[in-house]
Design brief:
By secondary structure, the protein is mostly helical. The chain has helices at residues 3-26, 35-54, 60-66, 69-83, 87-98. The longest helix is centred in the N-terminal third of the chain and has 24 residues, at 3-26. The radius of gyration is 15 Å and the shape is globular.
Length: 102
Amino acid sequence: MLARPAGYAGAAIAALWAARQIGRLYSSTEPFGPELMNVARNLGIFILPALVLLLAGPFKMWFDRFAPLYPLVLGAGVLNIYMQDDALAAGLPLIVLVYPSW
């Protein structure tokens, strides 16, 4: 019941974050350099849990218990990236919480 909306919300957050990163890359002096691969990799890693929630099938009851955590953690992590001044303090919580789910 909650897996599908949580998957859509998480996919939207990941897509908006990737669109912002692509916009930042396009406005730089060297557009679409090697940094584009980092954005694509991160989008893939952040969107895979959303795809799992959207295709939950027979495990839907189990996913429904924990489904709301994915968009909350992803949204808080992206917000933390934009609010922190230090790059390590900004990205480390997101890496610790979201990357292991992949």
